[in-house]
Amino acid sequence: MRLKGIKINGFKSFADKISLSFSNGITAIVGPNGSGKSNISDAVRWVLGEQSAKMLRGAKMEDVIFSGTQKRNPMGFAEVTLILDNSDRTFHIEFDEVEVTRKVFLSGESQYMINKSACRLKDIHEIFMDTGLGRDGYSMVGQGKIEEILSSKSDDRRQIFEEAAGISKYRYRKEEAQRKLVRTNENLDRVYDIIAELE
Ligand code: ATP
């Protein structure tokens, strides 16, 4: 699996539609201060499912939408697509190329797509889970992440090893099943209450 390219439209400083291709090997992005280098990594992080505006250096999620300049009007939405090579079937999808898209409107409404088909944020989290790529993956190493790895809190370090070992998907499913169990027990209590009232 490899990141082959990214298409950005209306995200942060990118008012114009841009398309970047990443060939094999190492790609370095260079440019003057404030030219938008970090905005590209923010765009990648955003599509991978980042839900924290703070992690994207904003106050609220809509801050990722191009806010305009003296010469250009603000945009009404931001859209970013990651193009991933899937010839090794890292993602359990029968396509050699996987396109993952995230779009947000000024109203706050969000849209997610996998290979141009609408999906939920949950589906995006699930396809990236255990690939090391997801929101909590170790493929994006920001400043905070290094602190997390060096942290004395064993829980923080454990999360990184669990993602690498490919077991975070099962932890997530277990937690989801436990939440359902709690809800089911609450519903059961309600049913017992009603039965008791009727008797
Ligand atoms: P440095 O080398 O200093 O780290 P950089 O190349 O990484 O800089 P970025 O931090 O990616 O630069 O980009 C900062 C620029 O992006 C700023 O000029 C900021 O005004 C602009 N920017 C951020 N969010 C938006 C937005 N929503 N709309 C328009 N411009 C934005």
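^ adenosine-5'-triphosphate complex. Residues 12-13, 31, 33-39, 63, 65-67 surround adenosine-5'-triphosphate (CB under 6 Å). The chain has a mean pLDDT of 88.
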